Amino acid sequence: MTIPRFVGRPDWYNTFNPETLAATGTPLRWGVIATGNIATTVTTDLALLEDAVLQAVSSRSETSAAAFADKFGFTTHYFDGGPSGAAAAGHLQLLADPEVDVVYVATPHGQHFDIVRAALENGKHVLCEKALTITSAETRALIELARAKGLFLMEAVWARFVPGFQRALEIITSGEIGEIKWVRGDLGFVAPNDPSLRIWAPNDGGGALLDLTVYPLLWAWGTLGQPEKVAATGSLTSFGVDGLNTITLSYANGSQAQLISGLVSQGPGRATISGTLGYIETVNSLNNPKELFISGPGGATRTETFEEPGSGYTYQLREVTRCIQAGLTESSTMPLDDSLAIMELFDEVRSQLGLSYANDTRTDI
């Protein structure tokens, strides 16, 4: 039985727990834009790579930029109105720095398009946090610009690269659990009821869809591919963004996937992939499973476990590094066409939910 694979395996990834820290080529000089929680977590893993040079960091605040630079050992830090750019924003000063090769963008979603566009226009390679943009029109414009410039661009969907997910795809494509008939995934937590938070802010692309849904969606996309039909229901909060959404994906072969994402209740955060001969279930986190429970033919069961350096972000960081060192402009594991297709799917979901953002009407792309 031949089972297709819809998310690629990195070329350098040849074991269940591949070595990600050893240098694979000429060191890259990194710039990090923003100093929040995700920037801190990813930079902690970035510092583990032997061929990563922590060159520059930017923040709106001089205090935050200086503290981040001191914590991780960055050579330079920039801040809004800083000495290198007079009144210029800190990220624009960083993007003008000739010592920076590649930037990691960790700002809220609503800022991604403008910052990534400026980065590409300044000749920088880019790794940008998911969601890459807020609309498919923005995503398409960035892809066209990156390709025209011959620069690397990747959306930071780190869950595509972690050992648990990659191993699950190996098991599935081996045919062990048969033809996949349905996929189920959920991710949710109770977000504080605070309108000042990014996660509730419409201008930042707040809501469950852009922040969480990429993770349960990945299990459907990785095992069944791009769906034929999308049906979405959900509820909008008083903040104007979705607090909960349920998405049903239908496929031409009759298979289905159901995905639930929310900011109003706690869930198990689990993915289940059901085939004609068995099933796979993530034991803990569906975005970085450290264990997989496999029930195969005849009811035989086993659990596979995975270890990894850092917090699990080294895999995507190794992929970015290897691609740039090899002169590649995109990753075959997180290709730009997937980013665009998924953002088009999210546009359709938003349309069905009645969820709109200011970016929907922008005219500068």
Describe this entry's structure for a reader:
There is one protein chain. The chain has 365 residues and is α/β, with parallel strands linked by helices. Helices cover 30% and strands 23% of the residues. It contains ten helices and 14 strands. It has an eight-stranded mixed sheet. It has a six-stranded parallel sheet with strand order 3-2-1-4-5-6, with helices on both faces. α1 (37-46) links the parallel β1 and β2 (52-59). α4 packs parallel to α5 and α5 packs antiparallel against α10. The longest helix has 18 residues, at 336-353. The mean pLDDT is 96.
Secondary structure elements and their pairing?
Blueprint: E1 28-33, H1 37-46, E2 52-59, H2 62-72, E3 76-79, H3 90-95, E4 102-105, H4 109-121, E5 125-129, H5 136-149, E6 153-156, H6 163-173, E7 180-188, H7 208-212, H8 214-224, E8 229-236, E9 242-250, E10 256-262, E11 271-275, E12 279-282, E13 291-295, E14 301-305, H9 314-325, H10 336-353
Parallel strand pairs: 1-2, 1-4, 2-3, 4-5, 5-6, 7-10
Antiparallel strand pairs: 7-11, 8-9, 9-10, 11-12, 12-13, 13-14
Helix pairs in contact: 4-5, 5-10
Write the H/E string, N to C. EHEHEHEHEHEHEHHEEEEEEEHH
How many β strands by DSSP?
14
What is the residue-averaged pLDDT? 96
* Portion in helices: 25-40%
Q: Give the class from helix and strand content and strand pairing.
A: alpha/beta
Major beta sheet, strand line-up: 8-9-10-7-11-12-13-14
Specify the biggest β-sheet.
Answer: 8 strands, mixed
Number of helices: 10
Parts with pLDDT < 50 across at least 5 consecutive residues: none
Q: What would you call the quaternary organization?
A: single chain
| Ends distance | 46 Å
Shape: globular
* Portion in strands: 15-25%
Radius of gyration: 20 Å
